[in-house]
């Protein structure tokens, strides 16, 4: 009798953004590499655009084992009690992508991932998605321009403090609900990266975009720890290799994808794109720097200092 073929190990990989983004393309690359490296012993099912879960529900689903893999933004770990990750939301903490990767690819990034393990989560990789821009239906040149605006943020006490420092009213909202909320005026503006602005059509319902580069968007690719630890050692090793390659790919395309998205937004003529002057940027920085001090008690001064050191951060004068 012929031996019955063993069913493949299924990894459900859920995320909230479009397939045609750096994260979406990184997930697709991981799927291709994982299935090829394991000779079909692993099947990766991708669920983009919040098909399975909205932002807030994702982590609970992972902890319960309903999905095996996610790539949430780093602020999502705060509600789990791992508030150290909110350091990544501090305004102007990374001067460039090199500074960000000095943190995530070094001991600080590894130590942060270890803090997830008691929650049943294993961190596999950090994926970079570039710098945040701001948008609204009015020009945002100076900090005073934010006064009274309802600005959508993802759930993060740091981002809440950031918007309040600017005089705006922060509104926590699922990413999947943002377009309609902007279109209907439930919120006035938002922050995000160009690739997400383009693929989610945010630019269609926002007249003004400012290239503030005030924050940085990154994701942690994470798995259910029990599932991961239970994999055969050879399969796990093959998947780790696939993830390393997918991470290199996703990080490499982040800058070019965001630049291309910005070009497409400009070409649409629907949003007026503004690059702040050096004096305006310095004013934003001085307005937002108190958020760093304010968040020390929440994020942890030791964590903030470790990131400062690794990222070679210096406060504006």
Automatic annotation (TrEMBL):
Keywords: Signal, Transport. The keyword Signal applies. Gene3D superfamilies: Bacterial extracellular solute-binding protein, family 7. The keyword Signal applies. PANTHER family: C4-DICARBOXYLATE-BINDING PROTEIN DCTB (PTHR33376:SF7), PTHR33376. Belongs to the bacterial solute-binding protein 7 family. This is TRAP transporter substrate-binding protein.
């Amino acid at each position: 009798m012929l031996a019955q073929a063993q069913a493949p190990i299924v990894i459900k990989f859920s995320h909230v953004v479009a397939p045609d983004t750096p994260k979406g393309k990184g997930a697709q690359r991981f799927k291709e590499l994982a299935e090829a490296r394991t000779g079909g012993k692993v099947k990766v099912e991708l669920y983009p655009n919040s098909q399975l879960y909205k932002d807030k529900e994702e982590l609970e689903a992972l902890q319960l084992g309903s999905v095996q893999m996610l790539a949430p933004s780093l602020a999502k770990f705060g509600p789990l009690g791992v508030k150290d990750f909110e350091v990544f939301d501090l305004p102007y903490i990374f001067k460039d992508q090199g500074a960000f990767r000095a943190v995530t690819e070094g001991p600080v990034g590894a130590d942060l991932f270890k803090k997830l393990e008691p929650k049943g989560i294993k961190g596999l990789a950090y994926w970079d998605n570039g710098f945040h821009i701001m948008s609204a239906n009015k020009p945002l040149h100076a900090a005073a321009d934010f006064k009274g605006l309802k600005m959508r943020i993802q759930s993060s006490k740091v981002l809440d403090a950031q918007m309040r420092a600017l005089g705006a009213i922060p509104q926590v909202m699922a990413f999947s609900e943002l377009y309609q909320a902007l279109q209907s005026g439930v919120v006035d503006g938002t922050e995000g990266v160009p690739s997400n602005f383009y693929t989610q059509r945010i630019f269609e319902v926002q007249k003004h975009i400012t290239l503030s580069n005030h924050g940085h968007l990154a994701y942690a690719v994470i798995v259910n720890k029990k599932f991961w630890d239970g994999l055969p050692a050879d399969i796990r090793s093959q998947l780790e290799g696939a993830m390393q390659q997918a991470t290199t790919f996703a990080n490499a395309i982040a800058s070019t994808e965001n630049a291309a998205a910005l070009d497409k937004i400009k070409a649409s003529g629907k949003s007026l794109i503004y690059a702040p002057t050096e004096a305006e940027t310095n004013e934003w920085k001085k307005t937002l720097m108190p958020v760093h001090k304010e968040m020390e008690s929440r994020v942890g001064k030791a964590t903030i200092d470790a990131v400062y050191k690794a990222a070679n951060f210096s406060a504006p004068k």
